[in-house]
Amino acid sequence: MKEYILIADDNKDITDILSNYAKREGYEPIVAGDGPQVEKLFHEYDPVAILLDVMMPYKDGYEVCRTIREESSVPIILITARGEDYDKIMGLDIGADDYIVKPFSPSEVMARLRAILRRINRQEGLEKTENVLKVSNIVVNLEEYSFKVDEKRIPLTKKEIETMWALAGNPGKVFTRDNLLDSLWGYDYYGDSRTVDSHIKRLRAKLDTVEHPEWAIKTIWGVGYKFEINEEES
């Protein structure tokens, strides 16, 4: 069964290069040159991932990403000529899984794609019910509001447990500071991103009371945080 990668860019040289690299990875590339065509091909082919240029005719990549996210969790990598933190953060906030800044290395694009698909596979292996999450050697229980590493209970606050539920429940996914601020404190919370940084600092200090070489909360500078599983240890 063919696995399709949807490549969206109005520059044919770029789509040709990425198509060749996608074929080397064993995928069947399909190409779109504008926003509406991306949405049409997405519904027609059900691709395993989308490489999505931001600056496209008729409907830009941000708008397309936002529309697709309303109905699908398909991995989306935004490709942008603008490398400002604001552009990256906006892309992640509307649901993109990653971003690449032009000019880019096609090999890097494929490496990012492989990393995202590995993360998706790990998520499929998570044990997650409505109130209990098990990943690696962690158990997060929202019913009891408890957190354990190797069966050892670590005393975390309610917000810290909710943070671990969000991060550990999505290994490899980057959460912007605004993502975490809105989901954990609420849209009407009067605060700023420094609240999140202080919160993560306190959480890490508690987690570091036990050894955890299998995983870590990683800082993505200028953007936010992610929960990363060490594949060599897991």
Tags for this entry?
13 strands; 234 residues; alpha/beta; 41% helix; five-stranded parallel sheet; five-stranded antiparallel sheet
How would you describe this structure to a colleague?
This protein is α/β, with parallel strands linked by helices and about 230 residues long. It has eight helices and 13 strands. It has helices spanning about 10-25, 35-45, 60-70, 85-95, 105-125, 160-170, 175-185, 195-205, and strands at about 5-10, 30, 50-55, 75-80, 100, 125-130, 130-135, 140, 145-150, 150-155, 175, 215-220, 225-230. The strands form three sheets. It has a five-stranded parallel beta sheet with strand order 2-1-3-4-5, sandwiched between helices. Strands 6-7-8-9-10 form a five-stranded antiparallel beta sheet, with helices on one face. Strands 11-13-12 form a three-stranded antiparallel beta sheet. A hairpin with a 4-residue loop joins strand 8 (about 140) and strand 9 (about 145-150). Helix 1 packs across helix 5 and helix 2 (about 35-45) runs parallel beside helix 3 (about 60-70). It is elongated and about 55 Å long.
